Amino acid sequence: MTIKDVQDKIIHLKEKNDICILAHSYQAREIIEIADVTGDSYMLSVAATKLSHKNALMCGVRFMAETVKILSPDKNVFLANPDAGCPMAEQMDKALISAVKKQHPEYTVVAYINTTAELKTICDVCVTSSSAVKIVDKIPNNNILFLPDCNLGAYVQSQLPNKNFKLLQGGCPIHAIVNTDDVKKAKSSHPDALLLVHPECVPDVTALADYVGSTSGIMDYAIKSNNKEFVIGTEMSIAEHLQYRCPNKNFYSLSHKLLCPNMKITTLVDVLNCVSGAGGVEIVLDDKTIADAKVCIDKMIEYGG
Known about the structure:
By secondary structure, the protein is α/β, with parallel strands linked by helices. 44% of the residues lie in helices and 17% in strands. The protein folds into three domains: 3-85 and 263-285, 3-Layer(aba) Sandwich (Rossmann fold); 88-173 and 290-302, Rossmann fold; 175-259, Rossmann fold. It contains 16 helices and 13 strands. Strand 7, helix 9 and strand 8 (164-167) form a beta-alpha-beta unit. Helix 1 (3-16) runs parallel beside helix 15 (268-275) and helix 3 (41-50) runs parallel beside helix 4 (62-71).
């Protein structure tokens, strides 16, 4: 079978079985092409609530599928590849953060959306990379315990010097691996290119960027910019997707190290197997977990997330 053959089968089966396909922006091009919605994790979750399908299939990682289930508990939610996890989301658990909260009861616990449903149940406010600065700025308490990504937390802290941050040593191992040497090399190779990076990168890298923002923010900036060349400091797939969107512009990945194996583990055949009922895994969360985890997401929405 060709890629087109598999795509055609998926499209037929998803329509037949009332399935909406949600694909994170880091997914491969052939998956993006058959998705109903493409975007970041929170955008996908919100989009799912507005779709009438009774089934939702996440092409991404587990915490993203969990977030869809939290916001759409009446939907049957599936993860295309059961092994697609997120090291950042899984590096801090409920027991650890419960202990930290006891040590610092005067702090508001802010959870990056890249956390498990279980961990969200004990957090006060949820944020995305695009909304973190705005949301934290609106929190009445100036004491902020930000988790799990210390690099995103450091970026938010740099934008809100009036707040008192406590950061834990967690984060995205993919974004954190790039350094200033990678930036110098990219700028030397592409002197006319603007550097657009994700705030999950280390502070030394974000300090050298022309723009710091979420995946969707990076894409919007590049699409709207009059500049013709860009170095992209996030998962390598974004530079590829932008090449399709803007064929008159040039995009270069900041480093070949910016490759997320957890995002790349999902294949088009995984999607086919899931829509045909032969693969994937259903996300099952009990009512209490859904209710408790939704509290911090609702608070984010209240603050304008």
